[in-house]
Amino acid sequence: MANANLQDELQLAQLEKLQLENEKLKQELKDRGKSKPWHAVLIQFVPFVSALVAVAGFLWGVYQYQAQQTRNLEAQKLQSEREQETAQQELMRPWLENQRDIYLQALTAASAVANTDDPEELKRAKVEFWNLYHGKMILVETDEVKNKMINFGICINNACNRAKLNELLHQLGTAMANSMAATAQMTYEEFSANQFQYISETRVNP
Fold first, then answer.
1. Closest CA to 149 of 123, 124, 122, 179
2. CB atoms near residue 103 (< 10 Å)
3. Does residue 120 form part of some domain?
4. How far is CA 174 from CA 99, 120, 167, 181, in A?
5. pLDDT in tens, 63-120
6. Exposed, middle or buried by CB within 10 Å (0-12, 13-18, 19+), for 199?
7. How far apart, in whole angstroms, are the C-alpha atoms of residue 71 and residue 83?
8. CA of 44: how far to CAs of 34, 48, 57, in Å?
9. Is the pTM of this model over 0.70?
10. Structural domain boundaries, residue 135
11. Is 206 within a domain?
């Protein structure tokens, strides 16, 4: 009798379990037919949005890093160019000073040749001019100055009058001023390229 009651209770429990599972299945089928609430849809996109934000943050960090690196390289390049320019100016300083001194000596000698009435002073001035013309001037003169020196030397050999000598003297002084201004802006390579490469027939003999 007790076994029969226990059996009945088990059957009843199984039946109730089947009924509950059936109700659950019906509810799930019913829910499938309904549209999900908007917040449920949004919740589904939360992982995707989080990943997108993380990727965007990473890409922004990479962009900022690259931009900073570019700025650093540009700053280094500018600093290097400034240092090279300063070094070139320091290298050219002795040349510019020598050029100025030698130009002044040549211009002073040419002025004496053009304007002195003293035969001894004229002789000394000519010797000084030709010594500079065939010596120191070759180291520092640029094309324009070289041409004006040649013109003045030719005029000396042709015994030009004072007016002509002074005209050429002024042209020589202007050429020297232009040359010094240009040299102050040049690198040594530019200065060398701007000098005339002499051969024997390009010089005037006294």
1. 179
2. 23
3. yes
4. 14, 28, 11, 11
5. 888 888 888 888 778 877 776 666 666 766 887 888 899 999 999 999 999 999 999 9
6. exposed
7. 18
8. 17, 8, 21
9. no
10. 77-194
11. no
